[in-house]
Each structure stands twice: as structure tokens, then as C-alpha cells.
Write a structure and sequence with these properties.
- The structure is a single chain.
- With 680 residues, the chain is an alpha+beta fold.
- Helix content is 15%, strand content 43%.
- The protein has 7 helices and 50 strands.
- Strands 6, 7, 8, 9 and 10 form a 5-stranded antiparallel sheet that branches.
- A hairpin with a 2-residue loop joins strand 36 and strand 37.
- The relative contact order is 0.07.
């Protein structure tokens, strides 16, 4: 006996039915009294119920396979025709795998269609009773067709396929596929992607797995990629061998996202086993060929610096503006337009996207206008690609990771696009939030929401690695720390700092585990800073600025009061000290354990729209504010000041102390170091 049931809690919570599209309740699919969807208790009914009904409706229309997604639980419900009278039903969990929730079941085709049709009709009548229409009418027609079905549609099994692959590096490592139902041959680019992977066979890997070897291989590759070792190289070679063999036999599989994930994990793992790089810690100086300039040479005590203007240009874009530096020159980006300049301030290009724009590190510009989406590369007059973008609204920074472009859409959804074709690779859209912040560190994308959730997804595949839930919204983006990330939650005077694991510690701590958390009484907390094995956060307490230092285990080590006039603070490392700045241009140098070396006021003038962190270049501290000031880090003495005609919007300082200033009037100025004065 098969039953498809939907809970009734949603009717009591929203009796008007106005929010049915976002209503949540439990969904159950019982076979002989066993609920295959156990735990699906908080699903979006407006998405899950139509998805299941449409999936079974496609089988009734003659499709050989179908699938439906349960987003909150992370389940995929897969259907595969066995013959004219039977259907294989499989539930796959995507959270840590993918993996089978339980062995596949063979059920009667007509019994399945009647159960889904009856459950859909009951749900439709409950919705209609409280005045819900719209998409329910389409589901009514599908449910009626399921109930009226008297015999299964004809089904022709495609030609079977068998394949045995071995790793070139380890002959004992092999995978066998025995596709008697022709799942792989029947795959089409617009069809369901996961059912074709549920092919029986065996994976020989220190033992034998006789059920769904493709799923098992994806799971093993994910585990090996988290900590790539030289011994795992044959496993990654096997993944590449399998991908090549399947795509050559069935070209349509080249567009299957799961086969693309198999290829990406194998490729990245093979690269990681051949080139091992130590983990980077934020305050460590970058190694390799990174160019750095020595400190300013002076025969005595440095007294004055002089800056001279190189060029000036007008950046005519809408607000708010952001400054992006590329090798060809600066790019000024607004919400709907970007303007590019060369290194001498001459105009290079101007692009307009009515819906939004995002700028990449090499000058790539992603633009959207209505349903259209296209990519402009630096130095190219024509678009690299153009496609319909499904109302994508890009904004902010465009992150580049291998062949993918990652950006934030509508200020709440992380979207990854193929850099060559523009095809959407994956999407991470958190529920019940209107605003989120995207941060990319290493091979992970972090999405912190105002509803108090932090999502971590793999950049290559978009697979959710972990999710952290809290009762407070994320006040700032996460920052890297040894073996994990630091984050800050905050609302009003409530504040919490936490350290979460991302890579898996040697003692077996799972990714996403919170190692420690500390509650602090701070308003407007700054992004955390990892400095000399300590965690630093600045904020306001009782109207005064405070810098709090915590140990690497979360215990408060010391605090320092900050006599700054501003109410928005930012912390930056400056050698062995810590530099705290505010939106009025004030700065304070603090050294452990909480000693205040000097304080320098920013002076009168308009405050910054957002607090910009100070920069340390060639032994000089540069602080933005109503005027940009150069300060001696030892004494706090002002060495130079650059006057501004309008509030500073964004700025940049390179290794040679060249300044690039973007003012609120749209004026873009480039200044260089003109001279130094020292007293012997």
C-alpha cells in the first residue's frame, strides 16, 4: 500500500492561505507503512508537492525517469521505469555524499500514480477551501490524469551497457557498471540528472561495494578531496577514466551536472596530490613572487611626505560606487553601470546593465538587463557570451574560480556561471531571508544571511558542505583562520563571535562544527581579525569604542578603551600592533596586552559612508577620512594629508605608496609619492 500525505499544520499557521507559496509542513510518502521521506518536516509545500506530482505525471506521460527535490531535507526522490508495470523508487541524500537513504524499492506503477493523485487532490481541496488558486489548477489537471490512468504507458527498455574501468596507477582499484535498464543511454540534457547515476555494479576499493558505485565513487572522491594525499592519486585517476569513458560512449552525459562534478573532483584532487601547498594564515606575509617595496629610506627621523597628483578623471556611474583595480587600470562600478580607465586615466570603456553589474579581478564585467545576461572581458569590444539569464540580478564583486564565475544575485542568492558559456553551474538560494553576504575563501563560498544562517558550499560543484544556524543575524562576513573561519553575529547590543571548522581537524572534527563561541556586549561589531594567535573585534559599548582580544580558544584575554569619535570601527593588523579606525578618519594604535600607543583624530568634515580599513605600506600608515592622512606608526605623528573636495567613497594604495581616490562627486584621482623630508 502506498500513501502520499501532507501535514495540516500549515492551515492553522496561515488560515488565510496568503502565504501558501512559503508555507512549510511535513511531507510523507509511505510504502507498506514505512515513510521513505522520514524527517521531511519543514518543506516548502508550494515547491515540494507540485514537484512530486509533476515527476510522477511525467512518468505517466511516457518518460523513463523522473526526480523531485526536497530542498530543506536535502533529499532527491528518483523514479526509474523497470518495465511496463513496475517503477524503481530511490531516495538519495545530498548532504554528505550523495548516498542512498535506503535500498531502492520496486513498486507497482498504477498504485504509485493513484497514491500521488489522491494525495495531490486532498492537498488541493485543503488549499481551495481557504481561497488559494493559481498553480493549484495546473496540479489539479495532473492529479486528474494520474487518477484516470488505467494502464501504464508503453515502455521500451534501451540497450543495456556494461563498463569496467581500472585506475592507471593501481590495477586493484576498479569500478564495474551493469546498466541493464539503459539509464545512461536514455539520459537527455533537459531530463532528470540524478536517476541515470543509480546504475548497479561494484566499486573495488579496499573492499567491494555492490550497490550504486557511481554514488559511492562521488562520496569517496569528496572525502579524499577534503584531505588529498599522494596515496589517493589512483582514485582521482579512476574518476577521470570513468568520466572520459562515459562521455565518449554517451555524448549527452557531458552536460550532466553530476558527471561534471565527478570530473571536477577528480581533476582538482589530482592537482592537489601533485602540488601540495601549505595552508595560508591571514597575517602571514605571502610567499613566492609577490612584489613588496622596502620601507622608506631616510637618513634620520621621517618628518613629512608629499604627494603629487598624476591624473584626474570623472567616473560617471550611478551610486553606490566601488573601485576595482586591474592590470589594465581602475574600474569604477555602480549598481547599473561600469566605467574603465587605463593606468594614465584615459577612458577605455563604459558598459550599462539595467538590472545590475558585477566586476571581476581581471576586468571581467557581468551585466544583466531584464532577462538578458552577458559577459564583457577587458579589452574586448564584443560580449564573450550572451544568454537569457532567468532574471539574474548581479551585484558587487565577481569571483573567479577556475572555469566558474561566482556572484551574488538580488543580494541574497549565490550563483555560479560557466565562464566560457554562461551556463548556470549551481545556485545557492537561502530560504526566509531578504539579504545575504557572499564571501569566497579558498575553495569554499560562504553565504551569511540576516536570518542567522551561514552556508558553506564547494565552489566547484556548489554542493553544500555545512550549514550553521543562529538566532542572530550575521553582522559581517567570515574571515579565514587556521583550519576554519571566524564569524560575528550581532543585533543591537547583542554580539557573538565564533570559530567554525571547515577542513576537518586531525582529531576528526566534522566541517561546520563550532569549535567555540563567545558572547560580547558590543554594538556595531567590526569584522574579526586573526592576529598573532588572537581574535580581535572592535565595537561600541555604552557610547565608547572598545577593542576586545580573545585567545584562539575564545577566552577574553584583554580589552582596550578607544577614545575615537566615530561609531563604526574597523581593525587592521599593523606589524606587531593593531590599528583601529573609524568613519571620521580617526585612528588608534593598540599593542598587546591592551596598551594604547597613540590616538590621532581625523579632524572636521563629512564622515565616510562606510568605514574603510587603514593600509600600511612601506612603513607608513595611511588612514582614510575627511582627508587621507599618512601617519608615522611609531609616534602617531601626521606626515602628510591629502585634501578632498567630497566624501571619500572608495580608495586603494599600492606597494609604492601610490594613491587612487574615488570621491563622492565621481572624481577619480591618482597620486604618487613626490618627496620625503627627514631630520638628521
Amino acid at each position: 500500500m502506498i500513501r502520499f500525505r501532507v501535514g495540516q499544520r500549515w492551515r492553522r499557521e496561515d488560515p488565510s492561505g496568503a502565504g501558501l507559496d512559503s508555507a512549510r509542513d511535513n511531507v510523507a510518502l509511505e510504502v507498506e507503512g514505512i515513510d521513505l521521506l522520514a524527517g521531511a518536516s519543514n518543506e516548502r509545500l508550494g515547491e515540494v508537492v507540485p514537484a512530486i506530482v509533476e515527476a510522477v505525471g511525467s512518468l505517466a506521460a511516457g518518460a523513463s525517469a523522473a526526480q523531485a527535490e526536497l530542498g530543506e531535507k536535502g533529499f532527491e526522490l528518483c523514479f526509474q521505469r523497470l518495465n511496463e508495470g513496475r517503477v524503481e523508487l530511490t531516495v538519495v541524500a545530498l548532504s554528505d555524499g550523495p548516498r542512498l537513504v535506503r535500498p531502492a524499492l520496486g513498486i507497482d506503477f498504477l498504485e504509485l500514480t493513484r497514491a500521488i493523485g489522491q494525495g495531490a487532490n486532498i492537498f488541493r481541496r485543503d488549499a481551495a477551501a481557504i481561497g488559494v488558486r493559481g498553480w493549484m489548477e495546473l496540479m489539479e489537471r495532473t492529479a486528474s490524469r494520474l487518477l484516470a490512468l488505467e494502464e501504464p504507458p508503453p515502455f521500451e527498455v534501451p540497450h543495456g551497457f556494461s563498463w569496467i574501468g581500472r585506475s592507471p596507477g593501481d590495477a586493484s582499484l576498479r569500478i564495474e557498471l551493469h546498466d541493464g535498464l539503459g539509464r545512461l543511454a536514455a539520459y537527455r540534457r533537459q531530463g532528470p540528472a540524478l536517476p541515470c547515476l543509480l546504475v548497479p555494479g561494484a566499486l573495488t576499493l579496499g573492499g567491494e561495494v555492490n550497490d550504486r558505485p557511481l554514488l559511492q565513487l562521488l562520496k569517496v572522491l569528496r572525502q579524499a578531496l577534503a584531505d588529498p594525499q599522494r596515496s589517493a592519486e589512483p582514485l582521482f585517476q579512476l574518476g577521470l577514466e570513468l568520466h572520459v569513458g562515459l562521455t565518449q560512449q554517451f555524448p549527452a552525459l557531458a552536460g550532466n551536472p553530476w558527471l561534471e562534478l565527478l570530473h571536477a573532483r577528480s581533476r582538482d584532487g589530482l592537482a592537489a596530490t601533485r602540488v601540495t601547498r601549505p595552508m595560508s594564515v591571514p597575517e602571514q606575509a605571502p610567499k613566492g613572487r609577490a612584489r613588496t617595496e622596502p620601507a622608506l629610506a631616510a637618513p634620520g627621523a621621517l618628518r613629512r611626505l608629499a604627494f603629487q597628483q598624476k591624473w584626474e578623471a570623472q567616473a560617471e556611474v550611478d551610486e553606490p560606487r566601488r573601485l576595482h583595480l586591474t592590470r589594465r587600470g581602475p574600474i569604477v562600478a555602480g549598481v547599473h553601470a561600469v566605467r574603465g580607465f587605463d593606468t594614465k586615466g584615459r577612458h577605455r570603456f563604459r558598459h550599462v546593465g539595467a538590472s545590475g553589474v558585477a566586476v571581476g579581478p581581471q576586468g571581467q564585467v557581468l551585466l544583466a538587463s531584464g532577462q538578458k545576461l552577458w559577459l564583457q572581458r577587458a579589452g574586448e569590444k564584443s560580449a564573450s557570451w550572451f544568454r537569457w539569464g532567468d532574471a539574474l540580478v548581479p551585484s558587487g564583486e565577481l569571483h573567479v574560480h577556475g572555469p566558474l564565475l561566482i556572484t551574488l544575485s538580488s543580494q541574497r542568492t549565490a550563483v555560479a556561471l560557466n565562464a566560457l558559456t554562461g551556463r548556470e553551474a549551481w545556485r545557492l538560494e537561502p530560504a526566509r531571508t531578504a539579504r545575504a553576504g557572499l564571501v569566497v575563501h579558498g575553495s569554499l563560498a560562504f553565504l551569511g544571511t540576516e536570518s542567522g544562517s551561514l552556508f558553506a558550499a564547494e565552489l566547484t560543484s556548489g554542493q553544500l558542505l555545512f550549514r550553521i544556524r543562529a538566532t542572530l543575524p550575521f553582522a559581517a562576513g567570515v574571515v579565514p583562520a587556521p583550519s576554519g573561519v571566524l564569524g560575528v553575529l550581532g543585533r543591537a547590543s547583542e554580539c557573538m563571535v565564533f570559530h567554525a571548522e571547515t577542513t576537518g581537524a586531525p582529531e576528526g572534527v566534522a566541517p561546520g562544527a563550532v569549535r567555540w563561541s563567545r558572547e560580547l556586549r558590543l554594538e556595531r561589531p567590526s569584522p574579526p581579525v586573526w592576529h598573532q594567535r588572537s581574535v580581535l573585534v572592535a565595537g561600541m559599548r555604552d557610547g565608547q569604542g572598545v577593542l576586545v582580544a580573545m585567545s584562539q580558544r575564545g577566552a577574553v584575554a584583554w580589552e582596550c578603551a578607544l577614545p575615537l569619535a566615530g561609531r563604526k570601527l574597523c581593525v587592521a593588523a599593523a606589524g606587531r600592533g593593531l590599528l583601529v579606525t573609524d568613519e571620521r578618519g580617526g585612528a588608534a594604535m593598540v599593542r598587546a596586552p591592551g596598551s594604547l600607543d597613540w590616538v590621532s583624530g581625523g579632524g572636521d568634515g563629512p564622515e565616510l559612508e562606510r568605514v574603510l580599513p587603514a593600509q600600511v605600506r612601506r612603513g607608513v600608515v595611511l588612514v582614510p577620512g575627511p582627508k587621507v592622512r599618512a601617519i608615522d606608526p611609531r609616534s602617531g605623528r601626521e606626515l602628510a594629508a591629502v585634501a578632498l573636495d567630497a566624501p571619500l567613497i572608495d580608495w586603494s594604495v599600492d606597494a609604492r605608496l601610490n594613491l587612487l581616490l574615488l570621491e563622492g562627486s565621481g572624481r577619480l584621482r591618482s597620486l604618487s609619492l613626490g618627496g620625503t623630508l627627514a631630520v638628521v
